[in-house]
Amino acid sequence: MTFDHWDLYPDNQHMQNQKNYIGWLNEYGIDSWFNDYELNEKLAELSENLDFEDEEAVAAAVAEVRRYTAVYENEPCFKGNYLRDEPGSELLDSYVDMVRLYQIAMPGYEMYINLFPNYAYDFHLDVTNELYTAYIQKFIDNFDFDYLAMDNYGISATDNGWGDITRSVRTEYYWRCFRVGAELARDNDRTFENYIWTTKDLVNNNEAKNYSPTMQDLRFEAFTSMAFGASHINLYCASTPPSVLSANPDFVGGWGCIHDGGKTPELFDNAQQLVTEIKALSEVFPRYVWQEAAGFDAGGIYGATLVREAGGSFEGRIGNLSSDQDLLIGLFDEANGDGEAFMFVNSCDINDGASATITFSLTGAETVTAYVGTSAITLTPNADGLYTLTLEPGQGGFVTVVR
Asked: Is domain 2-279 classified as CATH 2.40.128?
């Protein structure tokens, strides 16, 4: 598990007032990106006119960097430096030499950059697939990181003025954003990761700002991410960030799963259940490599869009597919073998909360195992050769096939 990210503020003199948090991360074996504001400012200053061919100049810059990192670099939880959240394309250029200097100074550690989703890129412009692809490709070309991270949040909430909350999925952006990122991550050998909302929603209109995501919301966002091959699901946020507290001093309800040292029950409990379900896949999911995603239209409100935007096809892999709810299906090949796997996601109307009953056939399958919730179930075909899988609203079922 990785903690993304932990802030080091200059007025805290790096970590002197935050040792308890470091101890907690170390105790529970949680890795953490350290967002060292002072270091990031110093990296920008040092790298701006640095001649990387000048060994003495580089050595002096490295020594300055290590002066900042020395106070925490030996902590077991330290994973690397968090550089920036959602930089625009033009800012990526300015980070190249900063990252280069950091990698020289801190071999074995990495820097972290989280990318815009397509609906927020360059300050909420409507982004075409071509422009968004160019943005992500620029990140890949400039930074030799082993990951590609984005924060593609799929659900918005509105209030009708009478206290009734209606949720909606960003259908015009959501699945095609994943497709662009997932395909680029696959083709460039990057792990793919996405953030999901586990906090009272900051992006909704004022009346709905205190809306807490449901279990269906969390599952829908997490398992949709995994259906596009995401092997890291990041929770935004585990605890209330100081930036939110300073911007909302009168807010009492708690933005994060943990707020002011205590649990925000409706957030914490759902997030804890989701993490338990994801961790139940931690052994099996990495054994398969994402190939593409496909949609199944059961006549619901998302079906036609899912088929179009997911872009892939399950034909030749899954036969006689039937479902009473729209589905997103991630298609995977076994990394070291001839097997395959599918991530079925119940993509029912986000406001209806309907379970999905799915039936399908597979050719030449010896063993079929479904991982749903925290259970692994061996599926047996009926007399017609059909397998049956039931998923709760928003839930994902990871089905592995041995041939």
From this structure: no
pLDDT in tens, 67-106: 999 988 999 989 999 999 899 888 999 999 999 999 999 9
Domain ranges, ordered by start, for the chain: 2-279, 288-402
H-helix or E-strand containing 383?
A: none
Q: 51 CB contacts (<8 Å, ≥6 apart)?
A: 57, 58
Contact 140, 190 (CB under 8 A): yes
- Size of the chain, expressed as the number of residues it contains: 403
Question: Residue 37: its pLDDT value, please?
Answer: 86
CA torsion, points 279, 285, 286, 292, in degrees to nearest 10? -130
DSSP state of 390: E
Is-contact 336 286, C-beta < 8 A?
Answer: no
Instruction: Kindly report, residue by residue over 270-303, the tens digit of the pLDDT.
Output: 999 999 999 999 999 999 999 999 999 999 999 9
Q: How far apart (Å, rounded) are the C-alpha atoms in residues 252 and 267?
A: 14
For residue 58, give the amino acid letter: V
Name the nearest CA neighbour of 1 among 190, 234, 210: 234
